[in-house]
Amino acid sequence: GADAAAQDVHTVRNRAELVAALTPHDRPRIVKVLGRIDLSVDDAGRPLGADDYRDPAFNWPAYAAAFDPATWGRKPPVGPLEDARLASAKAQAARVVIAVPSRTTLIGWGPGAALVNGGLALIRVRDIIIRNLQVSDAYDHFPAWDPKDNGHGEWNSEYDNITLRQAEQVWVDHCTLDDGPRPDSAEPLLLGRPLQRHDGLLDITRASSHITVSWNHFRHHDKTSLVGGSDRHTEDEGRLKVTYHHNLWEQTKERSPRVRFGQVHVYNNLYLIHQAAAFSYSIGLGHRSAVYSQHNAWQTPPELPASRLVGVYKGDAFEDHGSIVNGAVVDLLALLSARQPTQNIAPAVGWRPAPGPEVDPAEQVPSRVRAGAGAGRLWTPTAP
Ligand code: CA
Ligand code: CA
């Protein structure tokens, strides 16, 4: 957006203005978000909920009865009720998923800038900056039932707060990403499984590359940041080059991040884990991942062993240099190997980060990241 002409610099206060400002064209642009924008509203700004998007043929009791594994079995849902769910989901997506075109700077203008009840999609685009925005509660009113997921079936939601697919040269900086006032933990069970309403906070998939994720606050979320969506996406090989630095990961349950294929540099991040019971792992090593971890800091409760901070999901290499847990230097790879002696994790990932900005000593990470990460921190009130 740096080269935007005056006509391509927009200030937006509601969904309609935001969508108009993001109308596709090839020129660089800057879009300044003022205040809190609800993405789930009609063109007149009236809030829209499940009943507004729902196809008349869809309802949850009928859906759950139709696809109960006891009678339907483990085959994927098909038929009029599934068609009605898909139509409902399509109506919601058309409203709440906002596409960001190439050569855009989208920036929260002031400390209270937020996008709520939806998310941003960066798909087949390049040269995008997203800064100083809270993006909250990309809530799925019509999650899908996958009868084979985890063996017993799971509900899966569709929306990420920010999703990147085939995106190139993207910087996400000083954002706060969360589920807002509707955590999945408050959802009821349906078909015996939690009704999942949120997917990723920031997912980077489908051969995206050259992405920097810095000084963001990820908080109170399950599947937080996925790099690489499937072992079958072999086009991701040589792509998915991502840097995560100075992010605050506050009680994120898993995928902080979880990586397939990519060369991913994870440095100077602060992980705050308050409850071991609501925690799975921080950094996930997936198929053909090459994660270079450096000077990260974890603050964990006493009952959580440091061997659980890295999870292995078919990954076979990992490097960490100088990370600390509760102030003490740890050897994450040695702890991991001791916990899972049958996993053979190579101690070298085959690449090194290029020389760049200085990496902070790990012991400075907790105070620096606490003071600087998240939306609103770029704005210091100044005396008139
Ligand atoms: Ca999912
Ligand atoms: Ca996702």
Notes on the protein architecture:
The protein is α/β, with parallel strands linked by helices and 384 residues long. It is built from seven helices and 30 strands. It has helices spanning 15-21, 50-53, 60-66, 69-72, 80-96, 332-339, 365-372; strands at 9-12, 29-33, 36-38, 97-99, 104-108, 114-116, 119-131, 134-136, 144-146, 154-156, 162-173, 176-178, 189-190, 193-194, 202-205, 209-214, 217-223, 226-227, 242-245, 248-254, 258-259, 263-267, 270-272, 283-286, 290-294, 297-299, 310-313, 318-321, 324-325, 328-329. The chain is globular. The mean pLDDT is 96. The site of one calcium ion has 2 residues, from loops. One calcium ion is lined by residues 160, 163, 199-200, 203, 226.
Bound molecules: calcium ion
Q: What Rg, in angstroms, do the CA atoms define?
A: 21 Å
Question: Helicity, in percent?
Answer: 10-25%
Total DSSP helices: 7
Profile the largest sheet: 12 strands, parallel
Percentage beta strand: 25-35%
Characterize the overall form.
globular
Name the average pLDDT: 96
Gap between N and C termini, in Å? 28 Å
Query: Would you identify the regions where 5 or more consecutive residues have pLDDT less than 50?
Result: none
What's the count of strands?
30
Going by helix content, strand content and strand pairing, the class is alpha/beta
